[in-house]
Amino acid sequence: MFGTILILAVRSISRHKLRSFLTTLGIIIGVAAVVAMVTLGKATTAAAQKQIASLGTNILQVRPGQGFGRGGGGPRPPDFEEADVDAIRDQVEGVTAVAPQAQSTATVIYQGANWSTTINGTTASFFRVQPWPLVLGRQWTRAEEQAGKAVCIIGNTVRTNLYRGGDPVGTRMRVNGISCDVIGVLSTRGQGGFGDQDDVVIMPIKQVQRRFTGNREIRLMLVGTDPAYESAQIQASITQVLRERRHIEGGKADDFNIFDTAQISAAVTGVTTLLTSIVTAVAGISLVVGGIGIMNIMLVSVTERTREIGIRLAIGAVASEVLMQFLVEAVVLSMLGGLIGLLVAQGVVLGLGPLMQVDYLFDPQINMVAFAISALIGIVFGYFPAQRAASLNPIDALRHE
User: Sign of torsion, CA 197 203 206 212?
Assistant: First the structure.
């Protein structure tokens, strides 16, 4: 019985191919938009988490100011000093290493090729805190660090643009006119929401402070922590030490901030999830519009086929069979639109993924849910036209012209 009704529904849809396609267009757009937005949102979240994970786990970032900027409208908070680094390393339980950083930008030159990049001055502790191994060469020695020698370790982007992917170890390049011996090459981290992490030259902090920044100030400290200790406890201890050293008394707000990489990951995930939800909700309106379109065209179909319905009722068909026929027709239309929408969504994701620099992630759950919702829309918006067809009086229906 159901098979016969399904065949009749498919025949009715195939008789008006263009009208059926236009009817399902709202469902196609709605399903495609919802699935594409959710899939891209999850891919973006995964990419951001991957970038954050590349910064390392069990790492605290300590910066001057009340946020990533200086915060507020007052004067710029003072930078950190070398003594602050020593105090945190020596006085705070659970700290494994502290890597101060001083940054600048410079143009690097090698045999006529030049490239503008970021210069990151730090200590050997940087490589203890950060999981960033070298693929070529070595780290600088303690003696080179203490003397502030002009040695540098370059990222893969700098290597590609200056050395065309060749081995730069042992060569000498110029950094803003200063000759620097290349002693190592960092492994590739790639690009993402934090920019190109491979576009960097790492040098001993004393060299950078003396030749590039012109002062001994520290704008960032990376603090490695022991996973056996609670992060909140370590952050509280660091806060206490820095408040004492920066002479912050009473209820005055801190003029520095501490970020845990886990907190950054949670914040980024929360923001991307919220944005994905908002965009998905807006896209979901298309599904409702598509459902209204289906209801409208089914009402038109009932009007066009009133005489046919009258004949079926007159020769013995019961109202439930008529209702089922039109309801199945609406559901088939909606599910067909949902299926096409899923295919369109995969094409959109495959097309936009490389442009957004995110990996393709197939989520079977959202695809199944979207397809089920398309079927539900067919039932909800197809019931009224089907009920109207089933409630027709056979005599009045046979008189209809």
Answer: negative
